Each structure stands twice: as C-alpha cells, then as structure tokens.
Amino acid sequence: MAAAAVGRWTGRFAGRKALNICRETAGEVTAAEPGFRALSDAELGARTEAFRARLAAGEDAFDLMIDAFAAVREAARRTLGLRHHDEQIMGGTAMALGMIADMRDHEGKTLACVLPAYLAALEGGAVHVINADDREAERAAGWMGPVYRALGIEVGLLRPEPEAYTARRAVYAADVVYGSVSQIGYDLLRGDMAWSPDEVVQRGLDVGIVDDARNLFIENRDLEMLISGPAPEEEVERRTAWAGIAESLSREAGDYSFDRSTRRVRLLEPGIGRLQDLLGVDELHPVEDAVGLGLVADVLAARESGEEAPGPDRQVRLARITVAGLLSAYGSLSGASADAACDHEVFQRGHALTVVTIPSRRPVDEPGRRVLDPERFERRADLERALDLQRAEWAAERAAIMSGEGRTARIDGLFDEFAEQAVLGLPRSCGRDDLDAVLALVGEVCPISVTVDELMRTPKRAAVAGRLRAAIAEAYGRRERELGSELLREVEHHVLLSVLDLVWREHLAREDALPASLWLLGDDPNETFVDAVVGSYVLMEETIPRETVGYLFNLEVEIETDEADGA
C-alpha cells in the first residue's frame, strides 16, 4: 500500500488499538458478505474495475477495503471452497495497514495474504508476495491463482529457470507477482547492473507482502545475494604484490600476533613499521588500504592455520544485497508469521514494523520461542542498513545515467568537482610553484591549454578553480568537434556507467576486507565498521570526478567511415 495512504488511514484512527481496527474490519466484511453472495460470477469479476473507477474518482485504497475484502472472500469460497474466517480477515487488515500479522501455524496465512495483495493491486503498482523459497512461491501462486483470476487479476510466478528479458518482464508485469526472495533479489541486482532499460525486468518494488515473515525478517535477514566476476588484470597484479609483501612478515620476529580461536591477525609495532617500509608509505590507512591489508591478514592467517592462502585471481564482487536490504527497498512492506509477537521489539527496532497478534481460532499451548536481544539485533541491523542504503543510492544514480536523465548537467557537475579537487589544499593565494603543480596534476587527466602565466593573473584559489573549469570546457569542446556530438554522447553513456561500476566494485572490495583490515591495525570492527564503510563510500564518490574526466578525454574511440566517404 502506498505509504501516504497508510499514513492517511492510520491517522483517522489515532489512539485506537490496531487489533480493534482489525476486529471491526472483520465484522464489517462479514456484514457485507450477503451482498457479494448474491452476485453472479461475471458481476463479481466486474467489481475489480468498479473498485478502480472509485480510486480514479478520488477514493483511496482503504476506502475500498471492506468491499475489496468481501470480494476476495467470496471469490475464494467459489473457487477454492475456502471462506476466509474472521481471523484471516483480521490478519489481512493488519497487513494492509503495513504491519506484521502474528498468526499461529496452520491458521491460513497464505490465504490471508491474498487480501492485502488484491487491495494493493487495485492501485496498479508492483505488488510482490515474497516467499522464502521457490517451492513455496510456486505452491502459493498455484493455489491462490484461481481466487485472483475470478476477480480479473493477473498473477505472475517467478520461476528459477533462465528466461529471456521479455519473458521475465512479462511475469513482473502481472498485477500480483509471487516469487522467492532470491528470485526477486537477483533480478534486482541484475537490473542494477543493466546497460540499457531493455535489460531491466522489474517495474518497481512498490508493495512487498512477506509470507513467513519471521523467516525473512529475522532468521535469514543477513543472507547475502551476491553476483561475482573475474578480477581485472590490474587487480590481480595489486593482490599479487600485497601477497608478496605479506610473505615478508614473521610472527617469530614480532611482526604480528595470531589468535587461533578467532583466526584473527593483528600487526604489532615492528610489523607495522616493516610493512610501511616495504610499501614506501608513512602511514597505513584501514579504509584506503583495506583490500591490501585484508589480503595480508588472509595470507598470514592461512600460514598460521596451515591452510592454502587465497589466490590473487579470486573473483570480485560486482553487486550484493541482503534479504533485509531487499525488503527495505519496498515502498510499503508487511507480512504474516507465526511467533512474531515474541520478537515484536525486534521487528520495531530493526524494521520499523508493528506486530499485531491475531487471536487463534484454536488456542493451544505451544512452547515459547527464544526471544532475541533487541539491542543486539538493532546494532546488526544498523550495520547492514548502512550497506544497503549505499547500494540504493548507487543503483538510483546508475538508473538515472542509463536513462540519459540529466547527462549534460551530470558531466558539468563532475567537471566542477574535478577542478575543485585539483586546487583542494592550496593556500588562498597561490604561488607559481603551486599553480605549476596544479597544472601538472590536471594535465595528467585532461589536455587543457591554460598556462601558469594566465593563472598568475588571478592567483586566488577560487579564481584558479574557475579558470581551470573553463579550460576543461574548452578542451571538451575540442573533443566534441573531433568525435562529433552523436558519438560523444555514446562515449559519455559508456564512460559514466563504466566509472560508476568500477568505483562501486572497488568499494565492495574494501567493504569485504574492512573487518580484517580494521582488526589488523588494532581497531575493533564491531565499533568502527559503520564509520569505515561510510568512509569507503565517501572515497568512492571522491574518485568519480577524476576517473570520469580521465576516461572522457583519453578513451580511444575508433571512428568508422564508409568507403564511399573516403572516395
């Protein structure tokens, strides 16, 4: 359900208990039942378009909830011989409100999920009923399909078999889509990596309704979906160099310590000094040097454990997301689960979701489930949330580039940032040596024609940045005349996406290596990991202007000409 609609509806009932609202809804749906029993099959199916007409006239989805739920109840009775009992109506109401319905096992959660899914589908957004695995998704879609079809609602099922983009996109085009968390997650990641809109199969993540919510929100929230690929040659070379340096360190010489119980390596003062000497640096940085330091830790840990050291050519991460990250990407989220109430505080702290305990039709004594520590869960959720928010920002930026949205403004902004970075750290008034160094720095990336003498006429730092920016624009104008506007636009598209993929891959590599890197240098990852990940993301963003400018000006482009043109 749209977040704004949820806010409007819940605002009307401020101060009232959610459970009371669910009970009242069940009573009103039952009161409406005789009218829907009297409808013919055709008349019942036609109610969907009537509901959509009411939405178009200004009502919101929650104005329709009583009638919509009564229609679903009647469709289920006719097609499956199953009539939603009041507790299922209450569970469906809780989910429609964007909450977790705590329902006992065998209370019919799968049937209850049809209620909020149908209501959300009336609005036309992308509605996904999310299951823990492919088998459950197929079972639920096959079982509930007749209910939806009786109401004129198309149901899609995501299967694990490979499909062409057009076939997969057709599944996601359905009113309600059933799929496992892995199918939806990997389709999202592949869409994040797409190079054209034709390769994107999802039409959005508007509404997510999770069947067996505890499984995905809590028990498997940290499960990672990952796409990997071969390491670039230059990355293999860097890893080889760092591995060679690691071989020069010795525990016997007091370079590092090793904890066998945790397999953690920590550099000692002699080892830090030796490593700095071997690298020719004055300081080791846990974020900037994370990949290399992480490799040093892996090599040393393998040596001490008698294991084979990881090879420098192992695959690199290209895209990743956790189950929790995927769920948080939905505009509206809800679900049903058994045993959710015992961890209601975990749902609230970790996902900002309220748990509504639905009374059981058959109360029984069941052994209590172990309750999680909400504070510990919240800390872990914060770690993953930082990573998943970064993925969301990167994916949004990439989607905008892929669509061509604001390309000229984006490139102009990167030119501005590059010019500002070039003068960063200079005194307010720059001397000849300062300006000479700046021109050398910029000249490595961009063939500008401005001279030191020209810059000396306005040696103020801000003025120098402005003049450099103008010189970059002049050089880019020459580049456009050389290649032609149409070809340069294609180059821009290619470069912007390539650079964003490059820096993101480097960020993921740092993120993966950060725990070992932090521990190696004496920090506790439990306390500093989030700050380090943020630092890595900032470093990624700072790298983009220089990399983009460099590729735009130096990428070799072959211009094909027809033989007739050269005749």
Q: How is this structure best described in words?
A:
It is found in: Membrane. The protein is an alpha/beta fold. About 60% of the residues lie in helices and about 10% in strands. The protein contains 23 helices and eleven strands. The chain has helices spanning about 5-10, 20-35, 40-55, 65-80, 85-95, 110-120, 135-150, 165-170, 180-190, 215-220, 235-245, 270-280, 290-305, 325-330, 345-350, 375-405, 405-425, 430-445, 450-455, 460-485, 485-520, 525-555, 565; strands spanning about 100, 125-130, 155, 175-180, 205-210, 225-230, 255-260, 265, 315-320, 330-335, 355. A seven-stranded parallel beta sheet has the order 3-4-2-5-10-1-11, with helices on both faces. Strands 6-9 form a two-stranded antiparallel sheet. A two-stranded antiparallel sheet has the order 7-8. A hairpin with a 4-residue loop joins strand 7 (about 255-260) and strand 8 (about 265). The model is unreliable at about 5-15 (pLDDT under 50).
Strand content: 5-15%
Widest sheet: strand order? 3-4-2-5-10-1-11
Total helical elements: 23
Q: Which class of secondary structure composition applies to the elements?
A: alpha/beta
Largest sheet report: 7 strands, parallel
Report the C-alpha radius of gyration, rounded. 29 Å
Q: Unreliable runs, pLDDT <50, ≥5 residues?
A: 7-16
CATH secondary-structure class of the largest domain: Alpha Beta
What is the distance, rounded to the nearest whole angstrom, between the alpha carbons of the first and last residues?
A: 64 Å
